[in-house]
Design a protein that fits this description.
The protein is mainly α. It folds into 2 domains: about 30 residues; about 90 residues, 2-Layer Sandwich (Herpes Virus-1). It is built from 5 helices and 3 strands, in the order H-H-H-E-E-E-H-H. Strands 1-2-3 form a 3-stranded antiparallel sheet. Strand 2 and strand 3 form a beta hairpin. Helix 3 packs across helix 5. One of its GO terms (biological process) is protein ubiquitination. This is RING-type domain-containing protein.
């Protein structure tokens, strides 16, 4: 059995091809206008689909409450850059110093890390919640979930 020697070519009629090309040009023009519009970012953010990472869970909220937030200028002998985004710290930025490993990150960097269901340090993988804090964390989790009678 051999491969066929000839191939059938499917082609659109010229009118349909030109109509589709014209519609694509209109779409590109509209997107270009909207891209440069001052409110384009607000329009984009309000119309995009919600993902599961945009709504923090109770566990995420309680973890964020336990991780301290301080100003970079308040630290003694701090690192110069964030290991997540590789940007330098400035004196007025809010940062998180993880209690277990003492690594320092921008607040937004660690919060985005937690949004992806990560519960460990991005650099050394030690848990955010230390063993001595785990009992207090579990108690707050049970209380916040409304079933503290069983704990």
């Amino acid at each position: 059995m051999e491969f066929p020697v000839s191939y059938k070519i499917f082609s659109f009629p010229k009118f349909i091809h030109n109509t589709l090309h014209f519609l694509r040009s209109i779409k590109d023009f509209v997107f270009t206008i909207l891209f440069f519009h001052p409110c384009a970012q607000d329009i984009y953010l309000s119309t995009r689909f919600k993902t599961r990472h945009e709504v923090p869970t109770l566990l995420d909220v309680l973890t964020r409450e336990l991780l301290p937030v301080v100003k970079y200028s308040e630290l003694v002998d701090p690192p110069q850059t964030c290991a997540v985004c590789l940007n330098e710290f400035s004196g007025c930025e809010e940062i998180r110093r993880l209690p277990n490993c003492q690594h320092v990150y921008h607040r937004n960097c660690v919060d985005r890390w937690m949004d992806h269901e990560q519960k460990t340090c991005p650099l050394c993988r030690t848990p955010f919640i230390s063993d001595d804090m785990q009992a207090a964390f579990n108690e707050r989790l049970w209380t916040a979930s409304g079933i503290s009678d069983f704990y």
